[in-house]
């Protein structure tokens, strides 16, 4: 396993797009979060905004960059036929996938942490000027605050889990365009459906099983009792999706010819 | 339309690397012109410039007097085989030819005719992703022949063909040239072109190193050297060297003699009573001629071979 | 060009995966539409049982609000009526910030004035001159006609001549200014004329507990006092037009006559019906967003597959005029997508309508022109988005990056604008500036400035008009295709 890890690390490190994708993850997270913060105002104590969620909105955009990185980590090899060289060198295919997942998760986590910390910092600079002041019930965002820390750490984990979900889907699908389509379809289908229907039971159910809506429940710091799913339970749903996708990808990897 | 290709003064750089450095030659109708050179000599780039795929920094290419991009239904003038693997794997071979035919205003009838001509047969209706190298090559040649063009460019057409296939393509090329078509065949293996090409363009470091008929090239490479087989090697060397020849040892009982005609060698050896088993005018192979010409033009060569 | 188009069409139809992708997109549009329709219920509890009261239809067949307090008499043939609105006051029930009492107040679109109306039947033709709470005098007719007068006038006049009605206003009852003339086609000789008052509810918008905004509308009532009424002397009839049985007392209309002064009070509104309480036709096409994702994947593959295998060289050998190749590809892809989406829409719309109606929903009526615009527009939206994705694919030459970029610029802004914690202004800018603006083509019920409403993307209102938004998407597609052509011409293949 150590050898596989080392090989996958070298492979991903030397892939041309990796650095760009990692930079994009961090930059998009911060930039879009800052833009959302700058566009929002809180006029009074009853403005009912979730400042933490607002500050971390960028995650919804940067997950696209995560998807690029994760999908290319595996479909790039299928596209060029390099996968045969990989499996000739390392015949234990599950170990290869596990090593790939570990390296990918590590890199994504680093970029995501940078992005999330940047977002919190940006929010500290921007939000007080937009009316998010202690008088309106918004103390300065601080990671020492339990819910804020949970939302921030959870957002970084969210992006990491999205990367693993993408890797699993891409391993199963093998074609990069189709893999990206499946993953983004899966992420965006649920919020669109939830808005279009009026049945509250179905709405709650869809939120609970949706990888994006449930996963992002980790960002909520207000009205927790009204959320259809708890923060950690929500992240658990996304974890289940990621594990299922990886398991499916791993199984197909073993069963199919390279 | 006249069927020939005129390549004039092509220059092209990729960053710091000069790919083409004044490439100039002509491909005449009714002949098979071999286009040879070591890897990196600029063969593929030249072919792509001829076909309007790459733009040269300088110089121009005319096909029958017109640049490729000005041709209206180009495949009816020029057929080309570049990369036989350039296929959509999920499409059948016949459908691949069909879309090409539609782009030239040709019908499915022509597709079936050309698929039969190259011997694809029933395989034409299978997905191209499952084709062997040889079948892909045949499909690529079918695509090149589709529009019954007067000019043909084939990049490494022998790749992946079995001996039967090689014989087939040699005959095909010969018959195409006999019809008065201009045929340009590139290869990095000179031996493949021996007996096929009438004319050779040898490229090296982005320009033409030699441009001559095959007969002339071989004669030039052969020089006036004489091969001598003798058991009395030292005596023969002494006699011939005194007569002003350059003598090289090429084996346990063989010598190569340069600077003297074969008749003179025989006369000298007989006069000095040196015994010999065989005297023959040396005829270079195309391979040797090529190695001679490209010795300086090879860009990458393992140090040990220097 | 015909040869090129045929060649590209042959290329498309001979790859089974792409054809299946298009079929999948069509299935998604239909099936998600059915799922959405099946999970939208509506029922009313009231004196009439579970059936919701019928929504009145205006003279042109569109759904309208027609609820107001009307004191009226007969007008036989041509004639003229003049009044002065002495005062317009009102009450708002449980207004913000504390939501616990009834206070005096007039909402901006509270209205009172004189009206000529075909009959007291809801939805019948009318024209009215009125003063409003915050928008000056207006001449309104047939529910969506609205012409502004001046802010200060309190004297109002309506003149009927045949089927044309002229509205005029005056600040002093001496110098009159014509506000406008409207034609009420087919107005019968005998109509009703009189004094009316109505007040739409008081809209307050708050931040939702789980993101987004929530609009709450609180009952309001307008009270108008009229004097110098030219109709004085004839017998009056009062009708609370459109009043529901069992409605709260505060919403009921009243009419009082004391000397030369007449007081009319009432709530409700006269105008086009918004999206609230009904299902617009575009609800049946909500599968288009997800179908679009599949279309984008196929569109990108249609071009990047050529680059991945080097087949682009074969293509350019066959057709060296590169710009035309890309244009032919775009035309074929656009046409295939258009037809696919159109078939899906033609199946989804009637099917989902039937399901929605079965679930007790009120289907907002649309004109044929609007319905055609929504159905054809949805197909065109997918087609143009596919062309944009194709161009992005040609620019990037890598399928993963191209698919992500296309989805991120076309679908994601819509998701963010309608289902996130972004403030309304930012959401609206996303739907103005990004290709997602094109979804505006689906909006069947327009935003009326003269009707109080919660006009936000989340509720289905786009910041740009339908064709304007579609134009933004077309602009992006044209720009990307242009760049792709330039790049294809310049770069070595």
Main sheet properties of chain B: 6 strands, mixed
What level of helicity do the residues of chain B show? 25-40%
Low-confidence stretches of chain B: 299-306
Order of helices and strands of chain B: EEEHEEHHHEHEHEEHEHEEHEH
Strand order of the largest sheet of chain B: 5-6-7-3-8-9
Rg estimate of chain A, integer Å? 19 Å
How far the N terminus sits from the C terminus of chain A, by CA atoms, comes to 20 Å
Global morphology of chain B: elongated
- Give the overall average pLDDT of chain B: 84
Tally the helices of chain B.
10
Stretches of chain A where pLDDT is under 50 for at least 5 consecutive residues are: none
In whole angstroms, the N-to-C terminal distance of chain B is: 48 Å
Largest sheet of chain A: none
Largest interface: A-C, 50 and 50 residues
Give the C-level CATH assignment of the largest domain in chain B: Alpha Beta
Query: Can you tell me the CATH superfamily of the largest domain in chain B?
Result: P-loop containing nucleotide triphosphate hydrolases
CATH architecture of the largest domain in chain B: 3-Layer(aba) Sandwich
Predict the CATH topology of the largest domain in chain B. Rossmann fold
> Radius of gyration of chain B over alpha carbons?
24 Å
**What number of domains of chain B?**
2
What share of residues are in beta strands of chain B?
Answer: 25-35%
GO cellular component, one term (chain C): plasma membrane
GO molecular function (chain C): ABC-type transporter activity
Transmembrane segments (chain C): 18-38, 287-305, 326-352, 372-396, 403-424, 467-486
Protein name (chain C): ABC transporter permease
Structure commentary:
The complex is a heterotrimer of chains A (258), B (306) and C (493). Chain A is mostly helical and 258 residues long. Helix content of chain A is 76%, strand content 0%. The model of chain A has no long low-confidence stretch (mean pLDDT 86). In chain B, helix 2 crosses helix 3 (108-117), helix 3 (108-117) crosses helix 4 and helix 7 packs across helix 10 (286-294). The two termini of chain B are 48 Å apart. The model of chain B is unreliable at 299-306 (pLDDT under 50). Chain B has two domains: 5-212, 3-Layer(aba) Sandwich (Rossmann fold); 224-283, Alpha-Beta Plaits, CATH 3.30.70. Helices cover 33% and strands 25% of the residues of chain B. Chain B is α/β, with parallel strands linked by helices and 306 residues long. Chain B has ten helices and 13 strands. Chain B has helices at 43-50, 93-103, 108-117, 133-145, 163-178, 190-193, 214-222, 233-242, 262-271, 286-294, and strands at 5-14, 17-27, 32-36, 58-63, 78-81, 151-155, 182-187, 199-204, 207-213, 226-229, 246-249, 254-258, 278-281. Chain C is of the alpha+beta class and 493 residues long. Chain C has two domains: 2-40 and 278-490, no CATH class; 64-272, Sandwich (Jelly Rolls). Chain C has ten helices and 19 strands. Chain C has helices at residues 2-13, 16-38, 288-309, 311-318, 322-358, 368-396, 399-410, 412-418, 424-433, 466-490, and strands at residues 64-66, 68-76, 79-93, 102-104, 111-117, 126-132, 137-141, 145-148, 155-161, 164-170, 177-183, 190-198, 202-207, 213-218, 220-227, 237-241, 254-258, 261-266, 270-272. In chain C, strands 3, 4, 9, 10, 11, 15, 17 and 18 form an eight-stranded antiparallel sheet that branches. Chain C has a seven-stranded antiparallel sheet with strand order 8-7-6-5-12-2-16, with no helix packed on it. A two-stranded antiparallel ribbon of chain C has the order 1-19. In chain C, helix 3 crosses helix 4 and helix 5 (322-358) packs antiparallel against helix 10 (466-490). The longest helix of chain C has 37 residues, at 322-358. Chains in contact: A-C, B-C. Chains A and C meet through helix 2, helix 4 and helix 8 of A and helix 2, helix 3, helix 7, helix 8 and helix 9 of C.
């Amino acid at each position: 396993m150590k050898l596989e890890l080392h090989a996958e690390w070298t492979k991903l490190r030397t892939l041309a797009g990796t650095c760009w994708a990692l930079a994009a993850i961090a930059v998009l997270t911060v930039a879009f979060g800052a833009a959302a913060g700058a566009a929002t105002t809180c006029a009074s104590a009853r403005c009912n905004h979730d400042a933490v969620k607002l500050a971390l909105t960028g995650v919804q955009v940067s997950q696209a960059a995560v998807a690029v990185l994760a999908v290319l980590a595996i479909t790039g090899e299928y596209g060029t036929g390099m996968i045969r060289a990989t499996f000739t060198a390392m015949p234990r295919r599950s170990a290869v996938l596990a090593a790939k997942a570990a390296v990918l998760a590590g890199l994504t986590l680093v970029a995501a942490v940078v992005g999330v910390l940047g977002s919190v910092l940006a929010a500290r600079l921007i939000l007080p000027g937009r009316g998010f002041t202690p008088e309106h019930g918004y103390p300065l965002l601080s990671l020492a605050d339990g819910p804020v820390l949970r939302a921030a750490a959870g957002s970084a984990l969210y992006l990491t889990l999205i990367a693993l979900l993408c890797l699993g889907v891409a391993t199963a699908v093998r074609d990069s365009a189709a893999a990206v389509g499946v993953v983004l379809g899966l992420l965006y289908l649920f919020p669109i459906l939830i808005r279009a229907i009026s049945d509250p039971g179905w709405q709650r159910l869809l939120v609970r099983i949706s990888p994006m809506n449930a996963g992002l429940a980790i960002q909520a710091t207000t009205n927790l009792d009204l959320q259809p799913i708890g923060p950690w339970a929500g992240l658990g749903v996304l974890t289940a999706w990621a594990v299922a996708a990886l398991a499916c990808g791993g199984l197909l990897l073993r069963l199919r010819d390279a | 339309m006249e069927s020939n290709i005129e390549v004039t003064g092509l220059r092209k750089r990729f960053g710091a690397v000069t790919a083409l450095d004044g490439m100039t030659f002509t491909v005449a109708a009714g002949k098979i012109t071999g286009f040879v050179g070591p890897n990196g000599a600029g063969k593929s780039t030249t072919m792509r410039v001829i076909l309007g795929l790459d733009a040269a920094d300088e110089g121009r290419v005319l096909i029958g007097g017109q640049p490729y991009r000005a041709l209206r239904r180009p495949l009816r003038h020029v057929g080309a085989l570049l990369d036989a693997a350039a296929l959509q794997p999920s499409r059948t071979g016949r459908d691949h030819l069909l879309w090409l035919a539609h782009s030239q205003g040709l019908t499915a009838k022509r597709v079936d005719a050309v698929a039969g001509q190259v011997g694809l047969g029933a395989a034409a209706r299978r997905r191209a992703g499952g084709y062997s190298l040889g079948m892909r090559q045949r499909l690529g040649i079918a695509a090149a022949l589709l529009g019954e063009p007067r000019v043909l460019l084939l990049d490494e057409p022998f790749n992946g063909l079995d001996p039967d296939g090689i014989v087939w393509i040699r005959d095909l090329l010969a018959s195409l040239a006999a019809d008065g078509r201009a045929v340009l065949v590139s290869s990095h293996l000179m031996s493949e072109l021996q007996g096929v090409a009438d004319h050779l363009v040898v490229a090296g470091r982005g320009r033409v190193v030699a441009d001559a008929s095959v007969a002339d090239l071989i004669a030039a490479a052969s020089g006036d050297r004489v091969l001598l087989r003798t058991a009395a090697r030292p005596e023969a060397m002494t006699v011939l060297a005194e007569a002003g020849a350059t003598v090289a040892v090429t084996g346990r009982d063989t010598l190569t003699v340069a600077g003297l005609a074969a008749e003179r060698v025989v006369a000298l050896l007989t006069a000095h009573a040196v015994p010999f088993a065989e005297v023959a005018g040396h005829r270079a192979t195309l391979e040797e001629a090529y190695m001679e010409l490209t010795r300086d033009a090879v860009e990458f060569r393992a140090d040990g071979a220097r | 060009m015909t040869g090129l188009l045929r060649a590209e069409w042959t290329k498309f139809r001979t790859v089974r995966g792409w054809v299946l992708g298009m079929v999948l997109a069509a299935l998604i549009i239909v099936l998600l539409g059915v799922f959405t329709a099946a999970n939208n219920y509506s029922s009313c509890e009231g004196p009439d049982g579970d059936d919701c009261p019928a929504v009145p239809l205006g003279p042109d067949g569109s759904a309208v609000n027609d609820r107001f307090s009307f004191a009226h008499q007969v007008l036989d043939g041509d004639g003229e009526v003049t009044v002065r609105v002495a005062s317009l006051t009102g009450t708002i029930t449980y207004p913000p910030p504390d939501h616990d009492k009834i206070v005096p107040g007039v909402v901006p679109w509270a209205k009172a004035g004189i009206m000529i109306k075909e009959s007291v039947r809801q939805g019948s033709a009318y024209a009215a001159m009125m003063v409003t709470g915050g928008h000056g005098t207006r001449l309104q007719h047939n529910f969506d006609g609205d012409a502004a007068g001046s802010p200060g006038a309190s004297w109002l006049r309506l003149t009927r001549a045949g089927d044309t009605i002229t509205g005029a206003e005056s600040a002093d009852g001496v110098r009159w200014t014509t506000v406008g003339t409207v034609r009420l086609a087919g107005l019968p000789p005998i109509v009703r004329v009189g004094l009316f008052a109505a007040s739409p509810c008081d809209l307050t918008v708050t931040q939702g507990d789980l993101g987004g905004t929530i609009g709450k509308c609180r009952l309001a009532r307008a009270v108008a006092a009229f004097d110098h009424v030219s109709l004085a002397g004839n017998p009056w009839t009062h009708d609370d037009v459109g009043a529901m049985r069992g409605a709260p007392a505060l919403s009921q209309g009243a009419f009082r006559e004391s000397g030369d002064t007449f007081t009319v009070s009432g709530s409700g509104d006269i105008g086009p019906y918004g999206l609230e309480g009904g299902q617009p036709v575009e609800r049946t096409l909500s599968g288009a967003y997800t179908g679009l994702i599949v279309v984008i994947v196929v569109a990108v593959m249609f071009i990047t597959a050529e680059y991945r295998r080097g087949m682009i060289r074969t293509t350019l050998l066959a057709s060296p005029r590169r710009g035309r190749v890309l244009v032919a590809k775009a035309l074929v892809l656009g046409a295939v997508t258009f037809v696919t989406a159109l078939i899906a829409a033609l199946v989804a719309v009637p099917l989902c309508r039937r399901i929605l109606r079965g679930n007790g929903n009120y289907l907002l009526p649309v004109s044929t022109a609007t319905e055609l615009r929504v159905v054809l527009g949805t197909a065109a939206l997918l087609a143009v988005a596919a062309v944009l994705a194709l161009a992005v694919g040609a620019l990037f030459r890598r399928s993963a990056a191209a698919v992500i970029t296309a989805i991120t610029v076309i679908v994601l802004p819509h998701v963010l604008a309608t289902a996130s914690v972004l403030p309304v202004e930012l959401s609206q800018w996303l739907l103005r500036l990004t290709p997602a603006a094109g979804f505006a083509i689906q909006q069947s019920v327009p935003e009326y400035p003269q009707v109080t409403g919660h006009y936000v993307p989340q509720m289905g209102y786009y910041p740009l008009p339908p064709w304007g938004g579609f134009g933004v998407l077309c602009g992006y597609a044209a720009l990307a295709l242009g760049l792709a052509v330039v790049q294809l011409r310049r770069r070595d293949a």
